[in-house]
Amino acid sequence: MGDKLKVAVLYDVWGEEETPESEAAAESGRKRKEKEDREEIFDALTKLGHEPSYYVLDGRPQSLYGLGKCGAGLIFNLTESYAGDDTKEMNVAAYMDLLGVPYTGAGPHAHFLAQDKATAKKMFAFHGIRTPYFATSYRGRTEHAHNVNFPLIVKPQSEDGSIGIDAEAVVNSVKELMERVEYLQNEFDSPALIEEYIEGREIYAAILGSYEHTEVLPLVELDLSKLPEGTPRIASRDVKFEKGSSAYKLTKSQIAEDLDEQTVQKLSETALAAYQAVKLRDYGRIDMRLTPAGDVYVIEANPNPWLPGFRANMSSPWPPKNPGALTRSSSKRLLKWQWSAIGRTTKRLETRIAPIFQVYFLSHSFAGWQSFRSDFCLPASLGTELCLPV
């Protein structure tokens, strides 16, 4: 299969045990119902003949120092924060850039653009991508303001994972708006992102690839139609994570199979344009709203769509309820994009990339492999015009 790669599966912990859960389960003798994404990736790499290892960033400087000495030829980056601070996710990518170690996923620039939702929306508008009109406010200062119309949804400008989003996030009056802005500033010390609430279907597009080589995966809808009357149809924190809540139990995700071809194309093209506008690479997710009139609005972009911890609450087999869990049941498919990370830092591609591409062959038909290899020849700018052999 060619040269083995030493791959460090990098993830972060904060205030929890550092031992990978698979190891902890083995030590205790208990059975685990579901593997973490890092374990899925570890297993796939092992089956391919590579040499994976876990590496944990625990918020201590020593863990940062050690990363530079771990000896890995590739970092599979699953970090979502540093020392519990989500806003430092981009710093981890920047640190790996300084080390000169290839890693999967977005670079620091993309993390910044996507995490600052107001900046991302400005980028979308610049590229002609429709996104809800919005305003931002912090401690009495308004940094940006469209002429927005009620109803509005008010959320933290830089948090992710639906933090700060609940049924009270949708407001219908100036009084409710002022109260919600004050709540966010006091609770999260964050600027408030105030945007027009778009009534419609919640559609997610997971995307694999980089630059001119990208693939939009089947569109997923988070079905919010069964929420009680009067409850805003939004992907709130309880809808996504609180298993005991009625909102969690009443919502399902499924492949959006009832969309006509033209609508699917419109959604996919919009998602891809947003992905490229904020310079995502390797993998990511674009969240959109589809109105009854067929208009598509981009809500946000997710560079590392919180891979750990999502539950599979699907009425369709793939992907999980939150399509951010790209590797939960498709880690092998995701691994085919490792060539991008390696290609960014080395010209010795032939023997290193071909074995990783075989992961696609393991889970797809021969016809699918033929189609894939014809579409994915590495560009000459990477030092070769390699096309994978059949």
Characterise this structure:
- By secondary structure, the protein is of the alpha+beta class.
- Helices cover 34% and strands 20% of the residues.
- The chain contains 14 helices and 14 strands.
- The protein has helices at residues 21-28, 37-47, 61-67, 89-99, 108-115, 117-126, 174-188, 237-241, 246-250, 261-277, 331-335, 338-343, 350-362, 366-375, and strands at 6-12, 51-57, 74-77, 134-138, 141-145, 152-156, 170-171, 192-196, 201-210, 213-216, 220-223, 252-255, 282-290, 296-302.
- The strands form three sheets. Strands 9, 10, 11, 12, 13 and 14 form a six-stranded antiparallel β-sheet that branches. The protein has a five-stranded antiparallel β-sheet with strand order 5-4-8-6-7, covered by helices on one side.
- Helix 4 packs antiparallel against helix 5.
- The longest helix is centred in the C-terminal third of the chain and has 17 residues, at 261-277.
- 43% of the residues are buried.
Brief characterization of the structure:
Helices cover 34% and strands 20% of the residues.
Beta-strand content estimate: 15-25%
The pLDDT mean sits at 78
Helix content: 25-40%
Structural class by secondary-structure content: alpha+beta
The number of E-state strands comes to 14
Topology, element by element:
Layout: E1 6-12, H1 21-28, H2 37-47, E2 51-57, H3 61-67, E3 74-77, H4 89-99, H5 108-115, H6 117-126, E4 134-138, E5 141-145, E6 152-156, E7 170-171, H7 174-188, E8 192-196, E9 201-210, E10 213-216, E11 220-223, H8 237-241, H9 246-250, E12 252-255, H10 261-277, E13 282-290, E14 296-302, H11 331-335, H12 338-343, H13 350-362, H14 366-375
Helix pairs in contact: 4-5
